Each structure stands twice: as C-alpha cells, then as structure tokens.
Amino acid sequence: MKLHFEPNLDYQHDAIESVCDLFRGQETCRTEFTVTHNAVGGQNDIFSTNDLGIGNRLQLLDDEILANLGDIQLRNGLKPASGLASGDFTVEMETGTGKTYVYLRTAFELNKRYGFTKFVIVVPSVAIKEGTNKTLEITRDHFESLYPGAKGYEFFQYDSSKLGQVRNFATSPNIQVMVVTVGAINKKDVNNLYKDSEKTGGEKPIDLIKATLPIIIVDEPQSVDGGLQGQGKQALNAMNPLCTLRYSATHVDKHNMVFRLDAVDAYERKLVKQIEVASLEVDGGHNKAYVKVLGISNKRGVISAQLELDVQSKGHVRREPKTVQDGDDLEQTTGRAIYTNCLVGEIRCEKDNELVELKIPGGEHWLRIGQAIGDVDADALKRLMIRRTIKEHLDKELRLRPQGIKVLSLFFIDVVDHYRRYTADGVREKGKYAVMFEEEYRRLAAHPDYQSLFNNEVDLSAELEEVHDGYFSIDKKGVWTDTAENNQGNRDNAERAYNLIMRDKEKLLSLDTKLKFIFSHSALREGWDNPNIFQICALREIGTERERRQTIGRGLRLCVNQNGERLRGFDINTLTVIATESYEEFAENLQKEIEADTGIRFGIVEKHQFASISVTDATGKTQPLGVAQSEALWNHLKETGYLDAKGKVQDSLRKVLKDGSLTLPEDFSAQLPQVKEILRKLAGKLEIKDANERKQVKTRQAILHGEQFKALWDRIKHKTTYRVQFDNEKLLKDCAQAIWHCPPITKTRVNIRKADLAIGRGGVIAEETATGASITLDERDIELPDILTDLQDKTQLTRRSLVAILNSCNRLNDFARNPQQFIEFASETINRTKRLALVDGIKYQRIGDEDYYAQELFEQEELTGYLKNMLAVEKSVHEHVVYDSAGVERSFAEQLEKNESVKVYAKLPDWFKVQTPLGSYNPDWAVLLELDGAERLYFVVETKGSLFTDDLRDKESAKIKCGEAHFEALAIGENSARFVKATKLEDVMAHS
User: Fold this and answer.
1) Which residue range or ranges hold the Helicase/UvrB N-terminal domain (predicted)?
2) Which residues sit opposite 842 in a β-bridge?
3) Which residues are within 8 A (CB) of 566 and not within 5 positions of it... i.e. 6 or more apart?
4) Going from the N-terminus, what domains does the chain have, and what CATH number goes with each?
5) CB contact at 8 A, 708 and 822
6) Per mean pLDDT, which range of 196-210, 641-655, 719-733, 741-755 is the poorest?
C-alpha cells in the first residue's frame, strides 16, 4: 500500500500561509560563509580549507515581522501580540489533523518563496523522530511533484557517530532537513555536538549549525523545552535559529501564535474521528476497605493526601474523595466499620517520592498516586476490558472490512511484564494480558456473529500468534523493557522497537498483515499514531495531566482504505475508548484537560473574538472587522447583560440566541449573522430557568379577606399533635416479610454503557447511546462485616429484634453474596416498615384554639414562581396558581376556575404543614363548593395522577395517610372540612 496525501486541504493551506506570511517582503537570498579546517590529533587533511557554507538569511527588521504577525493574527481571529519578544512562533493543530505534513510542506514553501534551505526538526522522543523520518520518506514523491525546485532535497537523523552529516548540512546547496531528539542535544558536557570533531574537519558541529541560521521546527515543544529548567529551550537557542516554529496540539507556552486549529475546530469540521466511550462501571463493589491515592500536597507546610474512599452517605455507600493527614482514622472518615483499624501513616511529599503509608490489620502498604488497595479483582476487570475491546473491534471489522478498511486496536498497559515476561534463562513467555487476550479472542471467534471473519478450516491457534504483538523498548539482548528515554542507552532501546509499527506503517495498514491488536507502554504516548486505530483500551490508570488527550490522540486521525485514500465522515470514523470511569466523568475530565492544555475557555467570549469577521466597506473592499471594533462589540454584549465582566456567556444571551431575537447596534447590524454563529458555538445549551421569568405572586385581597375564604380557613387552620401505637411482634414479622420480598441481591457487577462525545465551544457533552447486560465479578476474598452492629446503627432496633428479623427472612445466604448490598437493602426495608407501622397506629389531636396558621401569612410570606409554571386565575387567594405538574395540578386549577360551584379556593403554600413521623406534609388545595346556591362544602384536596396507594411511593402514601388523620381530628362541629384524594374535580364533587 502507498499512502496518498491530499495537497488541497484548506485548513492545512491556512496553517502554511500563516507561517510563510511572517516573512512577507523578504527577498530570495542566502548567506555564505567559509568552513575552515582545523586538524585534530594530527590527522590528514581530508577537507578543503575553503569549503563554502550556505545558510539562511533574514533581511526583515523586527518591526516588519511584527506588522506581518499582526495581520496574520487578525485574519485568524487570534489575540494580537503587543511586541516581538522572541523569534518563536506557535502553530496549534489538533492531533490527527496532519501536523507533520504541514510543517514539512511549510519548509518547502519557505524555500520556494524566500530561498531558505536549512531546517532542523527537534522532537522529544525516538518515537516522534522515527515517525517524522518515515513521513519524510513516504512524502518525497509527493513534495517533489508539488515543488520541482526542491528535487534532490536531503534529510537525515542526527547521529553523534556520523557527524560528517552535519558538515554536509552546512555546505550543501540543497534543502537540508536534520531530525534530532532533544535528548541528543541538550547536555553540553557530554554531547558530541558541542565538541571538536575530526568528522567535521575539526569544527564543533554546533558551530556549523549556528552559522547556517537554521529555521528550527519544534514538534511537541511542551515536551522539548525542558520545563522550569529549560534545558531543551537552551539547546534550541544555542543553534542560533533564524526563527523557531513550534507545532503541537497542547502548547504550554504560546509564543506569538499565528494559527490555531484546536480540538473544537477539528471536531466541528470532522477532521478527526468521532469519539465514543464504552465505560465499564463497577456496581456493588463496596465489600472491602477500598483506598486509592488521588494526590498529595504540601500547602504552607501542611502535608495532606487526597484519598478516594467508600463513604457512608444517606444510607448508601458512595466512592468519594477525602482529604486526610497523618494519623487519620479511616473508619471515622468514612463512617463504615469495614475500615476498622485502618489508619493513615506517614505521607511523603518529595519530588519523585510521593507516598502514602496505610496501616491496616495484618500489615502496612505504601501507595503512590494512582495506586489502590481493596478494589475489586483488577485482573477480572481488565479481562472484561480486553473482551469488550475485541468485541468492538470485530463489530467494526464486519462493517468496515468490505470497504477495504483494516481495523486496528491499541492497548496501553502498565507493565511490560504483564504482556511478555522472561524466565531466568531468558526464554520469552506470555504474560497475563497476552493469555487473557488469546482466551477472549478464541471465545469471541467462535461466536456465530463473527463466523464470516474467520476461515474455519484454519487452525485459530496459529492465527492467534499473529493477530497481536507488543511494541516496547528493546535492550541489547532483545528483551522488552520498561524504560524512559532519559539517556543514550534507553534511547537506543526505544529505537529498536519501531520496525513494523513505525517504519512499516503501510504494511500494518494492509489486510494481508495479520497483526490487528497492538500492546504498548508509555513509549507510544505521543508521536505515534495510525489512521486505522479504531479502539483504544487503557489497561493502566488514566488520570495524569494531558493523559486522556494523549491517549485518544493515538487514534484520532481519519482512516484510510487499501488504496491509501483518506475516508471522511463520522459514520466510518468512530474511535471507541474503553475506560473504567463513567462516560460522564470521562467527558468532564476531557473538558478540563482541553481547557488546561489549549487555553480554550468553554463558554467564554474573548474581546478579540470577532476581529476576523469580514466587513465590506463603501468601495466594496473586504477586510477584517479588527480588534478595536471587536472590543466595542464585546463591550456592547457586556453592557446588555449578555456577558459578565470575564466574558462568560449568560442565560439571557442563550435565550435570545434560542428565540432568534438577538440584535446589535446599527454599526454592527450587517455582521449579525456572523456574530450569531460565533456566539452559538460558545453559548452551549439553555437548560436552566430564566431568572428574568421569575416573579412574585400577589394575593387577591378581596378574596383573602372575604367571608367565604375566612369560613374555609377557620376549618383547616388549626395545628395538631400526634401519638403512635404499634404491635412489636407484628413489626418484626412485617420486617422479615419485607426483606424476603426485596429485589435479588447480586454479586459485584460491571455495567457497560456507551456514549458519544460532542466537543463544542460550550463544552464536552456526553450522550448515552447504548447499555449492555451486567457482568458478574466473582469476588472470593470478601470478609463479612458485623451485620448486627451495622444494622443497629442504621435502624435503631435492638440486636435481639434484628436477630429475630434475620432468622425469619430466609435471605441470609444473600448476605454472603454481597454483604454491603444486603445491609443497605435490609436497613432501608426495616426503616420503611417502621415508618408504615408508625402511620398505621397514628392518632392526631387538635392542640387548642391559640395554635394555628394565621390568615395573614398569605400576605407576609412571599410566593414566587416562573412564568412557564404559572396560571392566571380569578377565584384563588393568589392572582396566579404556581404548579409543579403541568398535567394534574394545572388541569385541576383550570377545572376549579371553570366550575360554577367553586366559589373560592387556594393552592396551599409551602408553609402550611402537617407534622408526621416521616417529616412534614403539605396538602395541595383548600376548596369551598356551594351547591344550589345554599349548601356550602369545605374540602382539603390532595391531587395525584392515581388514586391507588400502590402507585405512590411508600413514604408519600404514608404522609397522605397522616394528613387524612390530621384533618379528621379537626372535624369538630357541623359542616367541617373533609380530606379528599382526587385526580380531577369530579372526584371531589362525588363527595358532595
């Protein structure tokens, strides 16, 4: 296969033009210098003493480049630079949009326009170096056809043992491209780059490079610069660059940005794959003392750790972050007996040595950030992730293989040994992940749904060896190893790893190559990607800075078919990420990472946001609106209340965008469509109530102070007290019976949910698309807690009563199946049965004539509501009825208004409460009916969608029963108020 490159993609042209226009006004020229020869160690003179060095030359002044930069930033909608602080210029391009192609083509365009010939590409790792070199190899025909004048251009990977290439770099008249890792140039005391060498004719290689005034292209500068110490940045400056062009999706320092194609742009223009998350969430796995270290901090000398713990909260156990210090008792922190004698020991907050000591019964554990104890069986969960990845892969193969698309899946693992291990004799063996993969692959291959993908006559065992492989650093003995590229030996190890995966990318994309599933470690975190990665499974923790973006970045590029042609559209291009966090959490954390990495502020309008909008002047000439006018428009939006002082979009703006009523001052009226389009992308959805619609509801004085309402109020205004009686033996039997009827107690399960992620200017939104059947995890190392103590704390019953209930419920086997779930079900069931028992024996008594709800409270207590939930009325104490249910309550109010027998009524306010053992109860309506012009009837009405008790929640039904008993106690004398449950007014009339 030969990959095809598209030469006419508009966004790539825009990126190239943005860099090239920095030098607008520069003449085509070059600089020349003499390369001298200094004999080293008495060696023979093999170099001419008058070799001619050829380099780049810059004629423009800083002010001229600054003016060009301002024009470029204006047309690209970027914040304008106030000055030219350095010769660094930033291009931001989302992963997968062709960043490497763009900066290579930019070099050829710069040569064509201005004659620049010397380029140094600096990368952070061997992976990126190999990828860049591979791109240079496979694009030669493409670039030489686009730029005939560049034919014969030379490129090479810097090698400290082949320094003669550096002399050729300096003296060749052709375009020269040197690719080098920052690790090979950033240590002056040991690197040959800074030493005299006979291989360069006695020159220091760095001096030859400096003399050429190279244009430096930095790939992933956030990993090249060298952090706070800046060793990488110092090495770049030591090359004396004409300028430095910095390309990344995740810039830390945005020096003089000239072009931006960020994550939102790429997604909205469908330049990358659609992302979906298949989340495997554990349900019911709270039967062990779980502790995970989320972070460690030292603030003003106070060292603390943030732990994720299973915390008792409102009758249920929830996994929550808690901040702890040395000596904290986790039983007290969580409110759970399962953490008895679990203490926080020493917390270390040292560079490269952040640890938390946990003292638990039987020993102690030292945990680093991201590590956990007491979780469900990690291997069982990872097996399910591998199984799900294979299933997603095979499902896509069924759909895409007929279209000539090779489907690939990528596993990121924690330790190489888990995929391939070595015996003491150096014999390679399959690690646990490889064993899991082959078992699950064999299992799914036998499924009827996938028979068309396999040749039944071929032994699957032979194919199993070929469909998966690992790519890790390789030491001199050929052993895979976990290494960082922090020295030359480790860089050599990494370089050995990239044959098929890096140098033979086309072979990997061919359907003839059996390899489909790739296992790798951190060596592929950045710099390597493949257009046909459709599944990414992280068998290691995702959580460090930029981790999600780096992980999904390996598979964002649009796929290609067997002809090497790029295919577009989300219907084909969907990247599935298999993760162990919920898709809601994944989306939330991805949004945070995008904000941190790119500086995108979701829902924020910048002052320069409208600067690039096209404006046509009186002569018909088109030009950008400009920064000053953009700021004037921004100020108008702020003054109108559509933005706050920081530019954050307000709900009032979302509302006018939604209903199409946004207007602008006359000076900007012609730009309204373009402004609306920008604001729509930034605003997000209008999902909350509009504060402008909130209003106070006034009382209708004539009705409130009228004789009819006074007569109604006098019958219902009094308060009561209550007492309860119940049969203890019956309560215990009812509790046991209720536990027997509880839902089944399940073992710990894994629930699989899928959701599409939509990335817009308003934020990252997850929309659920599918759910899968729950999968049971068999946990055999659960220690049973003290059930009586737990239930006693939660129900306030005696241990003797609890023993009687548990012995009679016939569900104790379920306790061993899932202790925590059984305790939650049992305690909730017992408490519910207790509440109902209290209500069954409840008796109310009126307190007296002095304790009642005064009629004046209708005027003193403010009633407010939103217009969308208010109905204008005539017969009520209030001018509007505020309703919760648009169905039952609004309908009932309309019936009250229309029926001539209804003389006056009130929607009873929140302050009108009946006290019950289950909390206060607020009935719905007070109604006065007059029949045949004479007989008056008084009602308190509870309106529900159903009159059947079984259709109501237990607590709600019990409260209504208490309300009924309360008003029965007030029914003293003739023509008292009656309590009625109704769905419509006819139900009330039936009691007349």
Assistant:
1) 88-250
2) 724
3) 4, 6, 531, 558, 559, 560
4) 10-264 (3.40.50.300), 289-373 (no CATH), 379-598 (3.40.50), 614-683 (no CATH), 693-722+846-989 (3.40.1350), 726-840 (no CATH)
5) no
6) 196-210
